[in-house]
Amino acid sequence: MAKTHYKLIILGAGPAGLTAGLYAARAKMDHLLIEKGAEGGQILLTDWIDNYPGFPDGISGFDLAEKMLAQANRFELNSLFGNVVSMDLTEPVKRLELEDSDPLTCNTLIICSGAHPRPLGIPGEKELAGKGVSYCATCDAPFYRNMHVAVVGGGNTAVQEAIHLTKFADKVTLIHRRDELRATKILQEKAFANPNIDFIWNSNATKIQGTEGVEELHLKNNDGKESVLKIDGVFVLIGVLPNNEMLPLDILKADAGGFIPTDLETRTVVPGVLAAGDIRSKEVRQVINAAGEGATAVLAAETYLTNLS
Length: 309
Ligand SMILES: Cc1cc2nc3c(=O)[nH]c(=O)nc-3n(C[C@H](O)[C@H](O)[C@H](O)COP(=O)(O)OP(=O)(O)OC[C@H]3O[C@@H](n4cnc5c(N)ncnc54)[C@H](O)[C@@H]3O)c2cc1C
What we know:
This protein is an alpha/beta fold. Helix content is 23%, strand content 27%. Strands 1, 2, 5, 6, 7, 8 and 19 form a 7-stranded mixed β-sheet that branches. Strands 10-17-11-12-13 form a 5-stranded parallel β-sheet.
């Protein structure tokens, strides 16, 4: 009969989960890493990562994911393709329900389920998603060769991806609701120096229109003035929402945004349940701290298991 109980289960194989998997496998813990999609998580959505140490020229998100997985596999990572749909964390032995396979149980659980891009929530967005509305420049930029696209957002991701889009699109218009970008200075300098990027400040996207694909982006500036941009594509890059639909949010005392609070050792309020990476309640969501928290969580899990026996 297939094994159904593990000392440690890691949920999600983004940078946090892959690092937790590396630490658990290398420590020869009785572990299982569960992932419902492709290993790598959100880094698969980005073209280039310039701020993860050890890669002086930067690295593509895809290559970094492959390297993280290969490193964990070198220590015999035990992983399963599966979608966790719910869980019971009320008993010392935690129980996970999966979509297409038998339930699994564990003594410790590390939640690394991450996040996903936040939608604008405006008319036309849902209808034209995949037909000109995109949340991933890396995935979709090549479709916009010689076209004019808009990027909505002002943080690191929006600016980085606007720069990437200029490799394909003739013109990229970045729309931001404030009068200055939140992105780091170095990214701002690159974007301002790029002749193919222009900026619309103090404006919100209010509607996306088109029949077969995106044709118009409607804007309203902070003085109430409305305008329409003729456009071939809209990239929405305005932050992330937690992947928490399978989590008992009340028991984990999720914050108002649905992220999971932990202490510095990544311990949630439930004994034996840790959370690492973008699903944690925190300010900075980057690969470097997701990986660091994945490592911390395994060490916290080891301490918990030692105290159990
Ligand atoms: C477009 C974009 C560009 C970015 N650029 C950078 C950058 O340049 N530098 C940087 O440091 N950071 C960047 N980030 C942020 C970085 O990608 C995240 O901080 C990091 O991926 C978080 O890692 P994580 O492991 O916590 O979560 P994620 O990467 O979100 O991974 C979570 C994983 O859990 C899986 N999962 C979720 N729910 C379930 C379930 N129910 N069952 C099974 N599996 C599940 C998901 O499929 C996913 O693979 C970028 C993000 C985006 C979207």
